[in-house]
Structure formats: C-alpha cells, structure tokens
Write a structure and sequence with these properties.
The chain is an alpha/beta fold. The longest helix has 18 residues. It starts with a strand and ends in a 7-residue tail after the last helix. The C terminus is likely disordered.
Length: 191
C-alpha cells in the first residue's frame, strides 16, 4: 500500500531524502505515512499514529510525522538546510518509532502514549529502541551524524542537548551498538 502524503513540505530535497530513507524500511510498506511540516513547540520531529474510529478495534494504518521548519528552539537552523546524512538520521529515527508502534492495537497505543508522557524510564527505552531500529535498517552512520550534529552544534541550545542526553542514545552508545551488532554478524567463513 505505502502511500506518502506531504503536507506543507515545500523543499523537494526534504521530500526526496524522506523517500530515500523510507525506502529502507520494508516493514512500513503497508502503511500510509503523512509527513507534515509546520511549527512544532518543543521538538524537531515527532512520529504519531493517526487514531480514528475506523481503526479503534484494530491497529492504526496511518502514521503522521510532524516536521518542524527549524531545529527545535532555533530560528537559524532550517531543517531543509541540514546535511543529508543528518536529515536521514533524523528521519530514520522517526521511522524507527513507526516500526515500533506498528504491532500495537489502537488501545495499546493509547496506553503507550500515556506511559511515554508520564514515565521517564519508558520514554528513554522508547527513544533508544527507535535508534536501534534505525541502526538495524542500515542507518548507523546517519544516526551517528545526527547525534554529533545535535551535541556539537553551537546554535543548538543547552536545554535541548540536556533533553537529548537524558532520553536518547549517546554518541558512544550508538558506536557501541554498531560494534556489538557487527561482532554478532557471521564472517564469510562461518556461512
């Protein structure tokens, strides 16, 4: 099915990078995805299921990814001007959330959302899982580039960096995750 709807995404480059990133997530081919660019308070990107009466008994079949015009709390770092690998890493993380959401029913997603809002440990686990899913999809370099961009950019404010440190994988954790996964890969002699 995979239908992608762009709402307010004016930059062709941004649409192209999103589609290239999505192309590596085979698990998402059966869903409708909406990439909606608008001003978002408190974040840069946010993936959410679209819950409706029609999917109340089953699970959501549509997911919305909200995309800010600027990196959070910045009026100078435009999303459309981010380096390609950084933008791919950010998109891969959000698509990792969608993969994580997909097996859940609508009622489970409501509980999931409440736990995300009220439990710091659950929120941290969810954010780490999104990175791990993106890394498994082949985006380890892009996830690393996104982390380095956020943590090392002078124009990104400290409260945002602090939030990233609290809930999201560190640069070292991403590197370790990649090393552990490569150690688990069989060598050509073992196959």
């Amino acid at each position: 099915m995979e239908t992608v709807i762009f709402q307010g995404v004016e930059e062709e480059r941004t649409r192209k990078i999103f589609l290239e990133t999505l192309n590596q997530f085979d698990d998402l081919k059966k869903y409708k995805l909406i990439l909606r660019q608008k001003k978002i308070k408190g974040t840069t990107m946010q993936a959410q299921p679209v819950i409706s009466i029609a999917n109340l008994l089953g699970g959501p079949d549509t997911y919305k990814i909200k995309l800010a015009r600027y990196v959070r709390n910045s009026e100078s770092i435009k999303i459309s001007n981010l380096p390609e690998n950084v933008l791919k890493g950010w998109f891969a993380h959000e698509l990792g959330h969608v993969v994580d959401y997909a097996p859940h029913s609508t009622f489970q997603m409501i509980t999931y959302g409440l736990k995300y809002l009220f439990s710091d440990s659950f929120k941290k686990a969810v954010e780490h899982r999104a990175d791990e899913i993106a890394i498994d999809a082949g985006f380890h370099q892009e996830i690393l580039a996104t982390k380095e961009f956020v943590f090392n950019h002078d124009l990104i404010d400290e409260p945002y960096k602090d939030q990233m440190r609290k809930y999201y994988m560190s640069i070292e954790a991403v590197e370790m995750c990649v090393k552990e996964k490569s150690l688990m890969q069989p060598t050509s002699q073992e196959i």
